[in-house]
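Can't paste images in this forum, so I'm doing it all in text. The chain is below; anyone willing to post the predicted structure tokens underneath?
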Amino acid sequence: MTSRSTSTDERPAFVHDGIAFGCDYNPEQWSREVWQEDVVLMREAGVDLVAINIFGWSHIEPRDGVFDFEGLDAIIELLHENGIRVNLGTGTSSTPPWLTTKHPEILPIMADGTTRYPGGRQAWCPSSPVFRERALLLVDKVAERYGSHPAVALWHVSNELGCHNALCYNEESAEAFRRWLERRYTTIDALNAAWGTSFWSQRYGTWDEILPPMLTVSTSNPSQVVDFHRFSSDELLDYYRAEYAVLRRHSSIPITTNFMVTAHIKNLDYWSWAPEMDVIANDHYLDNRLEDPTAELSFSDDLTRGLAQGAPWILMEHSTSAVNWQPLNLAKQPGEMTRNSLTHVARGADGVCFFQWRASLQGSEKFHSALLPHAGTNTDLWREVVELGATLDRLDEVAGSRVVADVAILFSWDSWWSADGESRPSKSVDYLQQVHAAHGALRDLGITTDVVAPGADLSGYRMVIVPGLYMVTDVEATNINDYVAAGGSALVTFFSGIVDEDDRVRTGGYPGAFREMLGVSVDEFVPLAPTDQVSLDDGSSAGLWAERLRSTGADVIARYADGPLVGVPAVTRHDYQSGVARYVATVLDRDGLKALLRSMAAEAGVTPTGPETDGSVEVIRRRAQSQQTTQDYLFVINHSVDDITVATSGIELVTGEGVETRVTVPAGAVRVVKERETKMENAA
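Text version of the structure:
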């Protein structure tokens, strides 16, 4: 696998022989006899990358200033002797009890002013100088000891940074927030202008008057809230950089941390984090609280790949079956673990790792599934784990190839934070709802999609979707408008282009930043009750949102046929310079959105990779390209209860069978066809 690099800093690559198959391992929970059994079973399963010392602080520093590395030494040597590479944690993710007892000021404080105490994990404030001092001392000791150990293939900074403690409101956080604001705005007058503090008599006279957005008796200042999210993301990123710097003093091994690109955690802006990683890694768990968890998995993968700028990435954690933290923790059906795992590979992962190796007997995660379940090896789950390991070995040659996509969806953490704030037109509409709807419709159409930042280079895409991009800078808006002007095809959905980066409304009519490109102007939002539906004159239906819209040059594709805005445009199309821009001013039903995107894709010359379905079949192509040849790998993932066939030819890698014209994929299975190699036209 090749890591990404920035233009200013060439970073070491994570190199692995093929697709990595790994797991978290917590040997401190088990006896030395169990360790011996575990490495034998790891080899049987094909596990070749193991993360350790993720929660090791209290074991390697059991008392203040007293370090004991004997156990960590032993497990690293044992893994190394058995040919298993180590993803070595820095051990800083959770504090030992002696530290918070001695320094209770480390503990995080919530928006309501209450303290969160030890007994769980991440009981530390990201702005605490005492925490940072003690954590970096630990990192220094670990890095000095293992920085050049031949077993260590990757450094794992902390764990799921910001999962529980991203937002801290204590005085140390307040002081750090003020320093961050002063760097951002320079003067207090500039901050007052950015936050609109003339509203509700909030004008500040000095920096010392500013607090984090604690709970108030009314709604909070939305600009202050967004800036606190930005600060909190930056504060944890600064902590990551501090650990990175310590590790780099002792080691040339690549460094990363595990992101949480998922629907239920939104506190870190990973667009700003990604350039700091030697390789992008993500944790993903099916969220069965969602209407379509598998569709969200695919979106998460595409966004993770976007963070990696298209390069391969590592799935650092996912589950073999049920998790333990949802209201109802559903077990995966036979074959579902394999489908999930190979979906991650199809969408760009060159490593598939699990939490965790052996199911814990105690603690909060004792009912979280693992590669080795409580019931042991005589189980269907273990047999599927072993088969997955063998399958990944057969797919090793796919490593290093890249996913092929010529459609992009724009995604913004700023818009997620701001559009879902307290004071908005309708709390029934949320940002991710629009993003997931667009991605899901394209997935149903068999179209593979990249997920990129609003400021990303869009020139290589035939089609770009801009769902609910509420907050957009002038530079980002210009980037999108210029893409269309240069011949691109874009679809913008409602509540886009409304405010600038300070959450200041762009006046003159919505959708603000995109009015000219779209050839429309909106006078007023007309949100609908969640139970209300409206019909459009093209036969589709819609709900949740409407707008008092008029065309200023756009052609009207569909109008409201009933409801509060009969005859008002709902969907428009505008020829803008050399390109085409469409606008949707409502929440189209699934079929209506698919019909619009289908027509748009055909006009833009987008060729679906797979058949159109209800999401029950995914077809994704990964491509390895050299100066002489192009080698494609076609992944066909069948979530349905029926066998399917897809046109292709080559060698099917899962079974080793030849494919002449079509591959048949059994119900619930995955097939990967190494298609016939293509020689480049200019090759000798």
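Residues 311 and 527 are 40 Å apart (CA to CA). The longest strand covers residues 629-638.
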